[in-house]
Write a structure and sequence with these properties.
Largest sheet: 8 strands, mixed
Helix content: 25-40%
CATH architecture of the largest domain: 3-Layer(aba) Sandwich
Number of strands: 24
CATH superfamily of the largest domain: Mur-like, catalytic domain
Strand order of the largest sheet: 9-8-7-10-6-11-12-13
CATH class of the largest domain: Alpha Beta
Distance between the termini: 53 Å
Number of domains: 3
Length: 479
Amino acid sequence: MKLSELIKYAEVKEISGFSDVEISGICADSRKIRRGDLFICYKGGNFDSHEKAAEAEKNGAAAVVCEKPVGCNIPQITVGDGRAHVSRLARAFYGFADKKLKISAVTGTNGKTTTTYMLESILKAYGKSAAVIGTLGISYAGKFIAPELTTPDPVYLHSVFADMVACGVEYVFMEVSAHALYFDKINGLHFEVGIFTNCTQDHLDFFKTMEEYAECKKLLFKDGRCGYSVINSDDELGVELMKTTKNHISYGLKNPADVFAVDIREKIDGTAFVLNLFDELYEINLSIPALHNVYNAMAAAACAKILGVDTAAIAKGLKELKKVEGRLERVAKYNGADIFVDFAHTPDGLEKSLQSLKNLCRGKLYCLFGCGGNRDRAKRPIMGEVAAKYADFLIITSDNPRYEEPFDIISEIEKGVKPSGKDYVTVTERDVATEYAIRLLEKGDILLVAGKGGEHYQEIMGIKHSYDDNTVIKKIIGI
């Protein structure tokens, strides 16, 4: 694509050294520049990529979009907000592929991943081609791309959209994180449906306050980004959102809602309930347990109905989803006990999973968990308190310690456990802790291994070591 054609989609303030060069790609990371790329500079919170413009030119950049002069010998297009132009120009370069897809977004502290996979299963049952983008990676048309970020950076995101179109994908269900909303990674996108699951404590290392975190969640539903909104009416922020969003559909179990469930029957291997979907009643059988997955199913059902899917296909799709990797996944039985792996890494997520398992447990409920390093420290004692409230015995261990000492993180978790008087042990090495926990199990017990879920690594001192709970558990019990 010629530079002159591409910059029609930019809000240009000034052009210097213009030459109508051929642009072969878009890039906002100087380390990844390929010859012929358009390099986009902007000033971030901790880094100013204008300082890398000369390096980008040396590595083959054909032109630069910048917020201020960078002194290069290639064309420079000055704009007001470089970050906003990453999405804008990527969309144009990839032929506005997003417009050829029916994209729905899910935001919230918990439930995003499961809701997107429920929707993918529903659309598959309806005979449509659907894609998922989120924490577990990108999946479409028989392809799988390993995860890097919950919401990919704009250039990569739009390149994937273009490939999805080429592969015949019709529907896309993507997780949109608070960070993605803060950095406006979804600039220019229109969503058929936007889903809000909940807002509970997380990421306060970045957002500092719950108010700031909540304000970012609201951004998905502003400026007409979503044709319809599906909102949890049992969440405090959800109630607030319903007052300000047009075309909203509510779902919930406690407060009045357009979509709700009755006659809920929880079992270790799934949950059955009667769904009231816009006054249409239908028996639903989930193959995954826990009350919070009833919420996720209601959100998915409401979204699917808006997209035109019939209720029979919704029920079929929900039933056929056997698991979501690392989301309260029942991974093994040992000595008559059940072992679950869950991503629960927030106080609310851990509480909901433990509460559901406590109701299903016929013996002792064990909980193995840790907290991530260099992240929201305030939630550590809270998670300790939550775990002590529901579990009969705790095994506190490492999660992703990153650049912190695992023992220091464990000590902060202990502050929430000690006042309860609940029995617990601390074992720094996660695999050793897991084996210790498994050897305690007897018939009727349940072990929840929480925090990492479907992650396939453990990050220690900047290095991601191969590790996943599921594999470790199966190796220990010999399956």
